[in-house]
Model the fold of this input.
Amino acid sequence: MRAQENRKYEKPDYPEIERFTKDKGLPSFYPRLFSRYEKNDTTLNASDFKLLYYGYFFQGRYNSYGNNSDFNDSIKNIYKKEKLTNEDRNELIRFTKELLRSDPFNLNSLNRLYVSYMDMGDMATSNLYKFKLVGLAKTLFATGDGRSDTTGIHVLSIDDEYSILAILGYEFDGSQTLTENKCDFLKVKHNDEGIDGMYFDVKQLFKGYDKMFKEEDIIEENKKDKK
Done:
C-alpha cells in the first residue's frame, strides 16, 4: 500500500473511453484491441489495458453481476483436495479458461492460471498470464488509493474488489457497506499498516445494473404485447 502513496490518480473518463473503443478507424477499436489481448500480445501498454478493462462496459457481453458459472463449483471442489496433481491443475486451467470466456478480465481467474502454469513448470505461459494480471491491476490502482469514498478504486466487478484486497495483502473480515457516494467499503482484518478497509468506486457498476433492469423491463413488455 505504501507504493500507492504520493501518487496522482485518474478516474476513468467513460465518454472518452467509449469514443475510443467504438471508433472503427482507430487501433483502439474494441474488437481489434480485444483480439490482441486474447492472443497474449505482450506489447499492450497501460493505455491499452485501461481501454480494455473500462471499455468492456460498452460491450454487449458485459455482465454487471459477474460470473456465477457452475465452473466455480468445480474449481472449489478441486481446491478441497489436500494435494493437487498436474491432472488437477489441468482441470483448474480448463475450468478457469471457460470462466474467462464470459469474464475475460477477472483478476482471480488470471491469477489462478498464472499460478497453475507456474506450478506445472510452464513458465512461458505462466508469464503471459502474469503480464495480463499485472497490467490490469496497475490499471485499477491508477484510479484511486482506496483510502476514502472520494478516492475509491474504480471497478466493474465485485469479484475484483476481493482480488485487489488479496493483491495488497489484506484479509476481508466479512463486513461490507455501500457509502452515499456509491463506494463499496470492505473492512479488513488487523494488518501492519493499520488500514481499516478499502473503498471501491462502483458508480459505473450501478449504471450497468440500471441498464440490465431496463432491458429486462423491455423484454417483459414485449412479452405482454405478444399475448
Notes: The longest strand covers residues 172-178. The chain has nine helices and four strands. Residues 216-225 have pLDDT under 50 and may be disordered. The radius of gyration is 19 Å.
